[in-house]
Amino acid sequence: MPSQKTGHPNLKAPLPRRFWSRFSREKSTTNRSILHLVVTNIVSLTVRAPWTDRDLVEAIARGAYTPIPIESLHDALGTHTFLRGYPCSGYAGDVIDEIAMNYHNMRWWITDKGLNMGGVVPDRVQLSPFDELAGKLTLANWKGRLSKDAFLEIAKELDKAGFCLKDELQPAQWTVIAQHNQKYSKNAIRTFDQAARNPRFTRYIRKRLYIARNKMKDISTAIPEVSFGFDQDI
């Protein structure tokens, strides 16, 4: 059973978040009160070992500030068992999107009946300018992992292209950087290059690049039959 902490929902959050890479807008309800269950609904809990991604999703649904009904979850979520406890916190939709990213072509959506995680191959996938450039650069430099040198070069290219760090990071990640900037104004983090070189924020930039990489992979490998192999890269 997860140990749960409570939080207060942010009613001003957008609907839905534009950086979700695996969210299916087409399959989801347009009912804003239902969408708020994944957009503004805070979760903060720890799942004790052993657990699967299915256990984690169900714990999130139960332990969110407002519980989320579940309509259907794909069997692939229960195929891998993890032997260490796992803490997760943030908006429910952010965490669910991260889980879906671990499976090739998995999508998630929410209807009036509840949360779904399964397979949807969209007719047309559109990438934001940031995801197109970051995804292309990350894929081109991927050698089983992204080396430090390649990582720093990509950060520089993103700055040269004029992308704003604040606009492209997830809100929870930017909040941590914004708090740092308030405390250390002389060493404020404003660019991708600065964040990539700061050990405290490196993981945020890598995570964002991996999201862009996955979006690019989805476009280049999308086929009629959906695959749910577990992605060890993430």
Concise account of the structure shown:
It is built from nine helices and six strands.
Can you characterise this structure?
The chain has 9 helices and 6 strands; from the N terminus they run βαβαββαββαααααα. The strands form 2 sheets. Strands 1-2-4 form a 3-stranded antiparallel sheet. Strands 3-6-5 form a 3-stranded mixed sheet, covered by helices on one side. It is α+β, with helices and mostly antiparallel strands and 234 residues long. Mean pLDDT is 84; it is low at 1-14 and 222-228. It starts with a strand and ends in a 13-residue tail after the last helix. The protein has 2 domains: 3-119, Phage tail protein beta-alpha-beta fold (3-Layer(bab) Sandwich); 129-221, no CATH class.
| Portion in beta strands | 5-15%
Measured between the Cα atoms of the first and last residue, the distance is: 25 Å
Characterize the overall form: globular
Q: Summarize the main sheet.
A: 3 strands, antiparallel
Radius of gyration in whole Å, from Cα? Answer: 18 Å
Strand order of the largest sheet: 1-2-4
| Structure summary, number of beta strands | 6
Order of helices and strands: EHEHEEHEEHHHHHH
Percent of residues in helices comes to 40-55%
Structural class computed from helices and strand pairing: alpha+beta
Task: Determine the number of helices (DSSP H or I, runs of at least 4 residues).
Answer: 9
Stretches with pLDDT under 50, minimum 5 residues: 1-14, 222-228
State mean pLDDT (0 to 100 scale).
84
CATH topology of the largest domain: Phage tail protein beta-alpha-beta fold
Overall tally of domains: 2
What is the name of the CATH architecture of the largest domain?
Answer: 3-Layer(bab) Sandwich
